[in-house]
Design a protein that fits this description.
Blueprint (H helix, E strand, L loop, with lengths): L1 H5 L2 H4 L4 E3 L3 E2 L6 E4 L10 E3 L15 E5 L2 E4 L3 E3 L4 E4 L4 E4 L3 E3 L4 E4 L2 E4 L3 E3 L4 E3 L20 E3 L3 E3 L4 E2 L4 E2 L4 E2 L4 E2 L2 E2 L5 E4 L4 E5 L7 H13 L8 H5 L1
Parallel strand pairs: 1-4, 2-5, 3-6, 4-7, 5-8, 6-9, 7-10, 8-11, 9-12, 10-13, 11-14, 12-15, 13-16, 14-17, 15-18, 16-19, 17-20, 18-21, 19-22
Antiparallel strand pairs: 22-23
């Protein structure tokens, strides 16, 4: 039903989006578009299913998806159990290929949120492009409270991180757990951000986001527990 509610018929019949568990789509009155012009494959996007080992399996909460504006999707992605996605009318959210929003994540969009390819959010993260309420100055003037949020490619965002209005993250970056990002780091790549508010604490690093490579590194350090370095370049050659 979700596919036929938000997609043109010739796209919906491919059933590109699978829903698992209890997913509330009652407020969806907007539209879904695709970054690619090709028809997406069946089940290329999964909503409501959890595979978070830390939170435990079988602990299912209601996943709520409210697309009143426009949701633009890459080729594959996952929005996990207990997440909340709200896209206001005329607002735009773009989620790139290989996107992951882990358990109990939040996306609230009132203007624009753009997220690149190969981006992983850990559990309990939230992304908002607004302060929700306006601040009134003593002279009764009010400034805008909505600014776009941008996340580049190949970014890992730790658990309980908040991205607020105006946040921008460059490619190949990592956000430490429990951080608040509310500044523009779009031109800073290969950095680690941490703190409240987030600041650059390390440079020239990226998180390994390839599952096969992660497994290979794991096996190496289990096999050689006294080793303190693994050369990705040497083991790829």
């Amino acid at each position: 039903m979700f596919n036929f509610k938000l997609l043109p018929f010739n796209e919906a019949i491919h059933l590109p989006i699978f829903l698992y568990g209890e997913v509330d789509i009652s407020q969806c009155t907007g539209q879904i578009k695709w970054i690619t012009s090709n028809y997406p494959e069946m089940g290329s996007w999964i909503i409501g299913q959890s595979d978070c080992r830390v939170n435990g399996f079988g602990n299912y909460n209601v996943t709520r998806i409210a697309v009143l504006g426009t949701l633009i999707l890459g080729e594959t992605g996952r929005i996990s159990n207990g997440c909340r996605v709200y896209i206001r009318k005329e607002a735009i959210v773009q989620l790139g290929t290989n996107f992951l929003l882990n358990d109990n994540g939040r996306i609230g969009c009132y203007l624009k949120i753009i997220i690149g390819n190969n981006v992983r959010f850990s559990w309990d993260c939230q992304v908002f492009d607004t302060d929700f309420h306006y601040l009134v100055n003593k002279d009764n003037t009010i400034k805008p409270n909505k600014f776009p949020v941008f996340v580049g490619d190949n970014v890992l965002i730790g658990n309980r991180v908040t991205l607020s209005k105006g946040a921008a993250i460059g490619d190949n970056s990592t956000i430490a757990s429990n951080s608040l990002i509310n500044h523009d780091f779009k031109n800073c790549d290969h950095v680690i951000l941490a703190g409240i508010p987030g600041k650059i604490i390390k440079q020239n690093y990226r998180t390994l986001l390839d599952w096969e490579q992660e497994n290979a590194v794991d096996k190496y350090f289990y096999k050689y527990p006294k080793s303190n370095t693994y050369s990705l370049s040497e083991n790829e050659s």
